[in-house]
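EI: anyone free to look at a 322-residue chain?
SC: sure, send it
EI:
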Amino acid sequence: MTRYRGMLMGAALLTAVVGACGGGSRGIPEESIDAAAPVAVVADSFISDISRDETFFKPYGLAVDFRGSLYVSDEGSHRLVAFSPQLEQRYVAGGQGGTPGLLNRPGFISVDNGLTVIVADRGNTRLCRYNSRLEFVDEIDLLDAEDLARFGQPSGVAINDFGETWMADSDKDRVALFDNTDRFDRFIAEFGYSGGMVSDPQKIARDGRGGFLICDAGNGRVLRFDRFGSFSGAIGEDVLVRPIAATVDQSLRVWVIDHEIPGLFCFDRRGKLLFENRGSMTGLDHSFASMNDIAVLSDGRLILSDSRLGSLVIARVLTIDE
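SC: here you go
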């Protein structure tokens, strides 16, 4: 199922357990020793198969739970796929449609300590929940009969430690909060250009300390919010142009994909730029413009969803120590 292609040299990062659109924060220390700055990111291997007879069409969202299991949304086939920590395919769910359990252009996804997988079901204007075996649980319907203009198309999604759901709405330029009974509570961020305001928000990722990172694509930055929804700062304002996805590694370094530049960037936990890779990655012949999401595997390697290849790209991060 998984095909590998050896690359140059490499060494894994510290063991990491991080959600990509938002996995649980277990395993990530509150404070961490600053890691060496990356010097290269090298494509190491590839996953192209959904099952024995089918391949990814347009892989999109990525999430890794605290066990190291990987969850992927495939926008092209309208499905979710779950892999074991050894990257062996285990479960497949979905298929195109609007009834419970089916999907229409699934986007970013998130996990909460491996118990729930939640996906932005963009074509159906809803958020769908599955368990860790990808069995459908329930949904949050965003078509509000009392206010049809309240929500648009969901993009990023995440679940906090209180069981509340954060949702980025790229159509309405907002970030909404739903309580742990799925009732709309409030907007965490509204449209704007400064402070905690957003424009075309995309992925929401856990920051490793209980809070969240929001890719504020329209304003060229990544925003920090604490666990209660209060704005606490921004990353990459002088570097990024259109960040669409971010993740955090074991050392609390923030990795960001920028579609406009295009490139891959790494910041330390204070927001200092440590590394940038503009254009393409060693081992690939095309740019980061075709990458949709990024996460960190349990062995510390990065994994990226690549629409052009129709594959997941696994990459090693090299540092000066190596």
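EI: The two ends are 31 Å apart (CA to CA).
SC: 👍
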